[in-house]
Amino acid sequence: MLDIPITAEPVLAERTGVEQLHAASHLRRLEAESIHILRETAAEFRKPVMLYSIGKDSSVLLHLAMKAFHPGKPPFPLLHVDTTWKFREMIAFRDRRARELGIDLIVHTNNDGLSQGIDPFTHGSARYTDVMKTQALRQALDHHGFDAAIGGARRDEEKSRAKERVFSHRSAAHRWDPKNQRPELWSLYNTMLAPGESMRVFPLSNWTELDIWDYILLEDIPIVPLYLAASRPVVERDGTLIMVDDERMPLRAGEEPRWRSVRFRTLGCYPLSGATVSTAATLPEIVREMMASRTSERQGRMIDRDSPASMERKKAEGYF
Amino acid sequence: MSYHEAPTIAASDAPRLDQDDRPTLRFVTCGSVDDGKSTLVGRLLYDSKTLLDDQLDALASESRTVGTTGGDLDFALLVDGLQAEREQGITIDVAYRFFATKLRRFIVADTPGHAQYTRNMATGASNADLAVVLVDARKGVITQTRRHSHILSLLGIRHVVLAVNKMDLIGFDGDRFASITAEYLTLAGQLGISQVQCIPVVAPDGDNIVAVSARMPWYTGPTVTAYLESVDVSGDVSQRPFRLPVQWVNRPNAEFRGFCGRIASGTIAIGEAIAVQPSGRQTRVARILAPGGERDRAAAGESVTLTLTDEIDVSRGDVLTAGAAPEVSDQLAAHLVWFDDEAMVAGRRYLLKCGTASTGAVITTLKHRIAIDTMAQESATTLDANQIGYAHLSLDRALVFEAYRDDRDMGSFILIDPISHRTAAAGMIDLSLRRATNIHWQQLAVDKSVRARLKQQRPCVLWFTGLSGAGKSTIADLVDRRLAELGRHAALLDGDNLRHGINRDLGFSNADRAENVRRAAEIAALFVDAGMIALVALISPFRSERELARQRVEAGEFIEIHVATPLAECERRDPKGLYRKARAGELPAFTGIDDPYERPQAPEITIDTSELSTDAACEHVIRYLRDNHHL
Question: A213 FRET partner, CA 20 to 30 A, in A22, A311, B151, B631?
Answer without folding.
Answer: A311
